[in-house]
Amino acid sequence: MTDAQQTAAADTGLAPSEPSGPAPVPLLAPREGVPPVIADEAGLAGVVAAFAAGSGPVAVDAERASGYRYGQRAYLVQLRRAGAGTALIDPVACPDLGPLGRALADAEWVLHAATQDLPCLRDIGMVPSRLFDTELAGRLAGFARVGLGVMVETVLGYSLEKGHSAVDWSTRPLPEPWLRYAALDVELLVDLRDALEEDLARQGKLDWALEEFAAIAAAPPAQPRKDPWRRTSGVHKVRRRRQLAIVRELWTARDQVAQRRDLSPGKVLSDAAIIAAAQAAPADVRALAGLQGFGHRMGRKQLTHWQAAVDRARALPEDELPQPGQPGSGPPPPRAWQEKDPVAAARLSAARAAVTAHAEELRLPQENLLAPDVVRRLCWEPPADGGPESVAEALRALGAREWQIAETTQPLTRALAAGA
């Protein structure tokens, strides 16, 4: 970017990576049109052959039915590669995409917000060995907004249709406008990747990005969350152990129904209803029916089912009731540090300020420079001697990447000493 462009960017309040320019050009249809959806083994074999013979990076995206169906399975997979064009695949009709994944094993996969799609892609046999995440690249390059549509507009000058991102992708057959939207999601993904790579290289951040991408590709599948019922929205309002037991029993009962009916749990029973029942601890179905979320539209059979869950919680012995707060091996919540360990609280304040200041200098989000949990753990149990080598080793043990260690060791060493 020239000095004049940087000055213009500053005048408009945009980051240097987000220059102002002419209005974006609407991208209304894929270059080769909307391809037919592949829904049989013969069609899939043709896609495998075509993409294996293609060249360069392969753009990959997946559509889920979050908010409609149970779990996070893929209901449409989109790919695009030079020499192969665009493919739309129905993973319900073709549940094993392992042959396609193996055909693309040596290619770089380009995804936007890769960690969102990789779990559902892994479930159908598609696991990249190398990837480029355009959302993460945008964060590291200093973009304030990193949604795919905004990035395509800002970097490439095209506007994408935004109307179908939250539709029920389990619908069959999928409407043509939805398929057009899905195909356009991968239409310019490789172009965006190339532009961001140039931007990162110019800023001296490309090696950082490649290290981040390698870490994502190498990460093992996420383990099931312990006590997932504790993530019920509004659970912080529930203080008593008996009430927490009601949350747990209702959450478990709802999850079983949702899984059996293949529905999003929120469509079976809302979190607000679970919290209302926990706070009221109704003694019978009639009392339950008067609570938020258990209104007149709910049948007697359903009410009886939920009341049974409440009754199970009411009948539990004291030693089987859940404890308040989620147990963990890490440091306490930062709000409790001042009372528990004022010296550690001072270290944390100094370290946070140091990381924030350096992140601003580097034009990237603080959480991408160093994960907040890493900062907290370092400050709660700092290395004994507090020297740079010990701090770097502590960061490495906490999972920080080498580029993060190189950028934050000195600021954190000074902060730990100042907050001691």
UniProtKB/TrEMBL annotation:
Residues 240-320 form the HRDC domain. GO terms for molecular function: 3'-5' exonuclease activity; nucleic acid binding; nucleotide binding. This is Ribonuclease D. GO terms for biological process: nucleobase-containing compound metabolic process. SUPFAM superfamilies: HRDC-like, Ribonuclease H-like. InterPro entries: 3'-5'_exonuclease_dom, Exo_C, HRDC-like_sf, HRDC_dom, HRDC_dom_sf, RNase_D-like, RNaseH-like_sf, RNaseH_sf. Residues 1-28, 318-339 are annotated as: Disordered. It comes from Streptomyces marincola. Gene3D superfamilies: HRDC domain (1.10.150.80), Ribonuclease H-like superfamily/Ribonuclease H (3.30.420.10). Residues 1-12 have a biased composition (Low complexity). SMART domains: 35EXOc, HRDC. CDD domains: RNaseD_exo. The lineage of its organism: Bacteria, Bacillati, Actinomycetota, Actinomycetes, Kitasatosporales.
